[in-house]
Write a structure and sequence with these properties.
Layout: H1 2-20, E1 25-27, E2 38-50, E3 56-68, H2 72-83, H3 91-96, E4 107-111, E5 117-120, E6 127-140
Length: 143
Amino acid sequence: MLPEIAEAIADQLADVATQVGNNLVVEPWFIINPAAPTIDIYPGDPFEEGLGFGDNRQLFWTVRARVHTVEHVGAQSVLLALMEPSGDTSVEAALIGDQTLGGVVDTLGIEGPTAYTQFIDQAGVDQMLGVSWRVSVLTKVSA
């Protein structure tokens, strides 16, 4: 079930990547060292919250966009396009366009985007600039 949710989020962002261009890659996984502008999707912190009734659960996901800072004006243009509150390049608009992710979850909510954040790769060498959104989904988890 969890990989299916991450993949459904990524699928819903595919058109955004096409509209933004710049070889923007969308992956339903945590990407450690991206080579291009990237949106990755991974479990948030905290990840799961029981709702106190039945099998319903609220799951939190992080949707993170990162760009390399070599050409900082173009990189920031990509981030700003993704941060738009509406339109073809908006992460928020793409996700709330189908709040069931094609029937994979019961409903979806989104918070963000955050302000710009600097990310350092695992080697501590490469710096990236990014923003993220907190996506919550309500779903039923069977025992």
